[in-house]
Amino acid sequence: MRVTIYGTVTRLGRMVIAVGRSAEVKSYGFPWNCRKNVPTKLAMLVMRLRFPAFFHYPPDLFCIFQDRKLFSTLVKRPALLFSLVPGVKIAHCAKEVLDGKWPQRPKSTLDDVLRTADMHYEHNEMRELYDFLKDFNDSSEPELVWRLARATYELAKASAKEDEKKRLIYAAFALSEKALKLDEGNFACHKWFAILLDEMAKYEGVKYRLQRSPEVKQHFERSIELNPRDPTSHHCLGYWHYSFADLAWYQRKAAEAFFASPPTSTYSEAIRCFEHAEQVQPNFYSMNLLMLAKAYTKEKDYLKAGVYLTKLRDFNAKTVEDVKAMEEGEKLNQEVRIRIQYQSK
Fold first, then answer.
1. Phi, psi of 235 (to 5 degrees)
2. How far is residue 154 from each of residues 125, 199, 320, 325, measured CA to CA in Å?
3. pTM for this prediction
4. Which residue of 233, 289, 336, 342 has the fewest C-beta atoms within 10 A of its own C-beta?
5. Within 10 A of 151 (CB to CB), how many other CB atoms are there?
6. Cα distances (angstroms) measured from residue 145 to each of 155, 174, 183, 186, 190
7. What percent of the chain has pLDDT over 70?
8. How far apart are CA 333 and CA 338, in angstroms?
């Protein structure tokens, strides 16, 4: 084992120094074309996910993974990756001696940061997403700020402690408010401001939430105007309509005390929004399928409700929210089947 480690490190050191001397590195710092090599791509992924500290070192390090045999050795023994650090330092000194300056790694662009953030979100890595974006809390870039608001909200939903959840909701709302001020022409800023305004208003009481509800609707509608191809905005607007269509009589009386003409809606209007979301992106969200089933049940169209409950049953659950939606859908499905049997008699 010691011989293998020694041989690997020795060979590694020679290769890194060789890379440091290469004319290609001298010209622009890093031979980017080596990324086409499959082992190189894998190595970069492993290094980025498992050993982020290595990114404090020059990227020329990754060129060594063009050597398939060395790469195979390192992957079989991940602990050996730590032995890369001395090799990098040797190459660093060698390069300084040769050129007087080590080539700097290109700085991450905004697109790189957004791409990484969206990757975490798509893979449901909310803690990693928040940790990645929290350093941009003071940013004046709206695309970063609304993503941080979203990440903070996702952490709040996952929190089991009510105090922490409330704190995160208010923090997320403040970020969404900031993002909207930075760019009122950004559909996502309007969408997340509306979502988080309503979430925050839940803590302020029924009266406050009802008073802000028209504003919530306006921002969802503005988000759709700016980007009609975003299914989530259509879903959120549909949920708003469903909520007001589903108000109990005593809640309507309370609303009448706050408004001369309180907000009203219908289940058919909610269905229109939910259906539009499905047209834009079918099966994009478990809750959209559930809400369609619930709205059709309210309209006593049990056959259509059953169609969406079947889709929900076959949905590929990835989050806790998906699991809860599917569990609620299973309970609703039992009621719908009974209703269908009763109608067929």
1. -65, -45
2. 10, 12, 11, 16
3. 0.70
4. 342
5. 26
6. 15, 10, 10, 12, 12
7. 68
8. 9
